[in-house]
């Protein structure tokens, strides 16, 4: 069965994001680091974060390679969930709505 151009594009996009996420996990080709509370660092690709959110694009356009996260509400688990969602489009199954209400 042949695939359509749209299906091919979807497969390509999914494959590309999968590889970017693997690179993020290894710290490969990451050009930015998010730092929370000066002890936890998260290597990321600026272009991926900027493309995912206008707010992140604005923050990244006015900072260097190190982005300091100063919000005390941003726990390590929230940052990890957010980055995983940005790179995969999937919310972790352990994410509970009760955590944030």
UniProtKB/TrEMBL annotation:
MF (Gene Ontology): DNA-binding transcription factor activity, RNA polymerase II-specific; RNA polymerase II cis-regulatory region sequence-specific DNA binding
Ranges where the BTB domain occurs: 30-95
Domain of life: Eukaryota
Alphabetical list of CDD domains matching this protein: BTB_POZ_ZBTB_KLHL-like
Pfam families per the UniProt record, alphabetical: BTB
SUPFAM superfamilies from the UniProt entry: POZ domain (SSF54695)
Coiled coil: none
Protein's name according to its UniProt entry: Chromosome 11 open reading frame 82
Organism of derivation: Nothobranchius kuhntae (Beira killifish)
Gene label: C11ORF82
């Amino acid at each position: 069965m042949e695939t359509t151009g749209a299906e091919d594009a979807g497969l390509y996009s999914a494959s590309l994001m999968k590889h970017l996420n693997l690179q993020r996990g290894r710290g490969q080709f990451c050009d930015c680091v998010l730092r929370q509370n000066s002890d936890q660092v998260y290597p990321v690709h600026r272009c991926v974060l900027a493309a995912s959110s206008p707010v992140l694009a604005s923050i990244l356009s006015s900072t260097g390679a190190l982005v300091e996260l100063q919000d005390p509400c941003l726990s390590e688990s929230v940052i990890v969930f957010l980055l995983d969602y940005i790179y995969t489009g999937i919310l972790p199954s352990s994410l509970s709505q009760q955590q944030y209400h």
